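WARN  no MSA supplied for this record, continuing single-sequence
INFO  ligand: iron/sulfur cluster
INFO  echoing inputs
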Amino acid sequence: MKKKGADRSQILDRLEHHGGLTPGASREIHKETGIPEADIYGVGSFYSLLARPEPKHRVCQGLSCKMAGSDARVAELKAAGTPYEEVSCLGQCDRAPVAIDAQMELVSWGPRGRVSPASADLPINLAGKEDPNWTALAAAKQMGAEAVLHALEASGLQGRGGAGFPAHLKWKSVRSQAETTRYVVVNADEGEPGTFKDREVLLRRPHLMLEGMAIAAWVADAQVAYIYVRGEFSAERRAIEAALAEAAEHVGDLDIRLVNGHGAYICGEETALIEAIEGKRGMPRLKPPYPTVQGLFGMPTLMNNVETLACVPAILHRGGAWFKDCGRNEAGSKLYCISGHVVFPGVYELPLGVSFNELVQAAGGPVGTLKGFSPGGASSGFLPMSLADTPLDFQSLAKVDTMLGSAGVVALNTTVHMAEAAQWQQVFFEDETCGQCAPCRIGCSIQRRAIDSFLKTRDPADLEHVEDVHWEMEAGSICGLGMVASKPLQTAIQHFPEDFGQ
Ligand SMILES: Cc1cc2nc3c(=O)[nH]c(=O)nc-3n(C[C@H](O)[C@H](O)[C@H](O)COP(=O)(O)O)c2cc1C
Ligand code: SF4
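INFO  complex generated
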């Protein structure tokens, strides 16, 4: 029988308290809570930081880290007999190659990335001074919720987590639900290789995100706000905690809960993240129903990305029209991450719609001769330099059959073989699929084996099913991961045939 008060949303907390799935941990937690041991084990084994908790270095295998020499770091650790694990991505592409040590603190071999110089004309202004005076929340309360929604609509703000969904529509939808128990969730699970912009917001301007979150909760009339922060973000978590201490006197009755991720990229997908907060394996749900209608614990839930929320204070201070004019074809400024072969990798806040060429200039110019780029994280695949003047915005990139996603831009020079770059990205997706739908689970494996085989034989026949498998995955997957998981290989072959013997 379950003990009184035991609910499965405690599973992840308790596992964390026990230091992961250490020997006997699931049995202990079963005794403490009455939750079946198999259930506890099943949940814990989904999350890499809990499933393999033993102290060790975790060496990033993301595209930028691979290009900067992560294999050499692995070889050094191996030679020294230091325990290590190769992991998907640590969100530090600007200082590649990186690892985290046994205490989960960053070990970096590259210099710290840059951000745009401070300017009062930037809505987020990463290099600006934190000014936690909470005047935007006060302004929101004075204007009233409907006026806030009008300002948001006028701003044209689209979600910065990847899908680009208009923010005001989501806020309105939650506000209009008949159910009065409502939640706000901040998605700070940033884990897409190439992406590290939310990290900079959390480290430099955590108050902007918190104030945006408090305004969202006030407009949506939500009682509880969750901040789900990726498990590998230790310094970022400390920055949020420090900002939360100062937030307490401003947020009234809003109950704010900080939740740790445990090493699963898929938990950035909104419904998987909800499952994780509920204490389950982070497997995406079928949509509809959308979280705005039936989200966390079955209640209306407003989930936004860190950057989306960080834009809100400036919109209320300076008006929707001002924010809109910060962009080009689409509204607002955008935090672009750039790493790989540029002089100063970093996060640059620029008008939404700058081109890759302009972004490279902002980052100090190219290193070597560029041959291509990834416009929006691993999910966006690769583009050739003939498309380097395409605006990096949601619609323009869709027109060339890719996406802005999380704006994790990676520059690749002529030293990179595109078959190898594609292989690294396919390994990422094969490692990170949650495995619940067959097209994604099997497709990730087939694509990975195809590129492995091609790299051994150099026989283009090894790649003859790539397009068909890509189509199956795009059409038959439940969530966005499976739909794009073979994009790196498919676009590398399409745009760089010379690297594939074609
Ligand atoms: C595989 C996958 C991973 C995702 N990872 C993130 C993430 O790390 N952070 C994020 O904000 N959104 C991520 N998203 C998008 C979320 O599902 C969701 O659209 C977003 O959090 C909504 O916030 P926004 O409207 O402010 O963009 C991911 C989506 C998919 C399909
Ligand atoms: S598409 Fe892939 S990651 Fe998404 S739910 Fe299906 S198996 Fe899981």
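Residues 266, 284, 433-437, 440-441, 477-479, 481-482 surround iron/sulfur cluster (ligand 2) (CB under 6 Å).
INFO  checksum written, moving to next record
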